Amino acid sequence: MTTNVTAYAAPAAKAPLERTTVPRRAVGEHDVLIEIKYAGICHSDIHQARDGWGEGIFPMVPGHEIAGIVTETGSAVTKHAVGDRVGVGCFVDSCRECQYCRQGLQQYCERGMTATYNGRDKAGDPTYGGYSSHIVVDEDYTLRIPEGISLDVAAPLLCAGITLYSPLAHWKAGPGKKVAVVGLGGLGHMGVKIAHAMGAEVTVLSQSLRKQEDGRRLGADHYYATSDPATFEELAGSFDLIVSTVSAPLDFDAYLSLLKTDGALVNVGAPEDQVKLNLFSLIGGRRTLAGSAIGGIPETQEMLDFCAEHGLGAEIELIRADQINEAYERVVDSDVRYRFVIDAATL
Predict the structure, then answer these.
(1) At what angle do helices 188-198 and 297-310 cross, to 10 degrees?
(2) 184, 204 in Cβ contact below 8 A?
(3) Using one digit for the tens of pLDDT, what is the confidence trace for 77-113?
(4) Which pLDDT tens digit goes with each residue over 219-250?
(5) Which end of the chain is more exposed for a tag (fewer CB within 10 A), N or C?
(6) Sign of the C-alpha dihedral, residues 259, 263, 267, 273?
(7) Coil, strand or helix: which one is 69?
(8) Domain ranges, ordered by start, for the chain
């Protein structure tokens, strides 16, 4: 039997979010019921609630940075117990059978992962995300949050943390590697923290020097303003890896010129507009232009354990549920340092 739970939802594209109720399925034998404590606000929530990435499913309850406590388990659950601290990220299911699911790369499921919100489950019902009091999730898609991280700063790790950890790990950021992070926002600030903890030499490339003090505090060794043309002359051929977190189109030819031969520019930010590229920017230095999408379940758990080991959490501004619409406008204006997190007790 389904249960209605309190949530904040966008009733239509571009409409303000409002308090409502949404259905949650009954707890199945492999499910856990999670009382949500905190939910992060990701820029992708805004893109989807405003139809920026295509037509959405409404009413829409955003939120895929979820941290909470297990309050009920199904009869066959073995991975989690009542009282456990758990998290839920960007997806809640996948086909489980394709080559990528079998490798633990569920984010690249050949049949498409089931998004935590703005998606449809295998029964065809809409999924509703973390701006709500409770959620029911299969145990295999529920993460363990280590004791070393408080739940409020852990919530954004379920998207922002893994989105940066995955490419940094895949392209082997570490001692002896020069890594640049483009943009010091909700994603970028976690990239700086994680790359620094991995042992890389970290540079922030931001539009201005306004956040330079923050960048240094978070672990950046260097900080440059991309609005200054001299930056691209001074840093030409400098980096092994550049991770772009911005959701606006870049001058890719300019940024690719900052890579060493065999360097990679990896995009985790997703602009709504198309981008342009001169292929000679790649050919000249055997450079790579790539993308990366979150991480699979095993890697997301690895990231949470890594963050706990190194004392890493997101820099957050905790808000009430009735401040969500204001927070959306502030995210668009880049007026947050560095992640809004909703206190679910205020729903």
Answers:
(1) 70
(2) yes
(3) 999 999 999 999 999 999 999 999 999 999 999 999 9
(4) 999 999 999 999 999 999 999 999 999 988 88
(5) N
(6) positive
(7) strand
(8) 3-159+295-346, 161-291
CB 255 within 8 A of CB 267: no
The CA radius of gyration of the chain, in Å to the nearest whole number, is 20
Distance CA 331, CA 184 (A): 13
CATH superfamily of 3-159+295-346: Medium-chain alcohol dehydrogenases, catalytic domain (3.90.180.10)
Per-residue pLDDT averaged across 180-186, rounded?
A: 95
For residues 40 and 46, the answer to whether their CB atoms sit within 8 Å is no
User: Which of 226, 210, 170 is CA-nearest to residue 194?
Assistant: 170
Chain-centroid distance of CA 316 in Å reads 14
To the nearest whole number, what is the mean pLDDT of the chain? 96
Question: For residue 317, what are the β-bridge partners?
Answer: 340
Predicted structure pTM score: 0.95
Predicted local confidence at residue 193, as pLDDT: 98
